[in-house]
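Example (one chain per record):
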Amino acid sequence: MGTKVLSITEGSVSNAASQPPASSSLPTEGPMLEPPTDKERENGDDKKKKKAAIMKVEEKKKEAEIKVIKLEVRMLKSISEAAARAIKKLKASSEMKDLNITFDQKAFIKGIELCEGRMVRKFLELDLSFLEEEPDEEAGPSDVAADPSPIEVIVESSEPATEVPEPM
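Predicted structure:
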């Protein structure tokens, strides 16, 4: 009788204890793993080098972006400081005072015109033609010489002008 090779799933391994498994029972499916060749090792090393180079480039890119952001912040800060100095200098200048005076005058005139318009609409029966200035007239000092003599105030007694009859 020949020796029978039993698998573990069949239950008994007593007859197969002294013999190695047959070559037909070894797995033959799938590729056999062999050690990589020198060329494959070089390709793997190249991939690692490329990956490291890519990581280095990405790191430098991030550093450059951070540097750009810092420079932008510094530039904006410098611009705002320069603008603040220019505004402060303009506010102190006589040019700004002249601008303020001109603006105030225009705002005042506009306010008067609005008020006149409201008055005309509110009081239609009144003759407000005296409010209109002639185009040749400009506000300014009067050409009439001032009379330096003091004005005399006359105070009369405060007695009633009519008599009130007394009740009887």
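Caption: The chain has a mean pLDDT of 75.
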